[in-house]
Amino acid sequence: MRDRITGTVLEEIPDSRLTGHPEARLPNHASFAFKNVDGNMLLQMLDATGFACSSGSACKTGNPEPSEVMTAIGLSREWGLGSLRITLGSGTNSEHVELFLKALPSLVEKARDLTGDKRG
Q1: CB neighbours of 50 closer than 8 A, spacing ≥ 6?
Q2: C-alpha atoms less than 13 angstroms from C-alpha of 103 in its C-beta half-sphere
Q3: Which of 71, 49, 40, 70 is nearest to 58 (CA)?
Q4: Helix ranges restricted to H, the chain
Q5: Which residues are marked as active site?
Q6: Distance between CA atoms of 118 and 36, rounded to whole angstroms?
Q7: What global pTM score does this model have?
Q8: What is the architecture of the domain spanning 2-115?
Q9: Which of 39, 46, 63, 101 is the most exposed place for a label (fewest CB within 10 A)?
Q10: How far, in Å, are 39, 46, 64, 65, 105 from residue 82 at the CA level?
Q11: Per-residue pLDDT of the chain (120 residues; tens, 9 = 90+)
Q12: CA 102 to CA 118: how far, in whole Å?
């Protein structure tokens, strides 16, 4: 299911990238960065749609700036602010994944539209 999410996000969402190692990663975890997206806004949209995800690195504290980890891996501000972490739980099934993949592209697009040129 993680690989389905990773492949679909990278293929269907422009200006998206996987963060972390492409293969040596946890089997239930995917982390992305989306250019010119406010990650907190995207989280709110996902939450309203019924999906609980995270933004930034696991040690991020809610600061609206990119996490130190996103900066340390070389992401610029325009990429680092748009991070999204997805963790699949023991109850996650393929139907959940498909619903998520159906919702995410339009939510990223909407977040980009709402963010506009506010970021540099």
Answers
A1: 99
A2: 16
A3: 70
A4: 2-12, 39-49, 68-72, 77-80, 94-115
A5: 59
A6: 9
A7: 0.83
A8: Alpha-Beta Complex (3.90)
A9: 63
A10: 4, 13, 11, 10, 13
A11: 999 999 999 999 999 999 988 889 899 999 999 999 998 999 999 999 999 999 865 444 555 556 666 666 666 677 777 889 999 999 999 999 999 999 999 999 999 999 774 444
A12: 27
Identify whether the C-beta of residue 86 lies closer than 8 Å to the C-beta of residue 7: no
Is the distance from CB of 13 to CB of 34 less than 8 angstroms?
yes
Angle, alpha carbons 40-59-115 (nearest 5°): 15
Q: Token digits for 107?
A: 């939510």
For residue 15, give both structure tokens: 């200006």
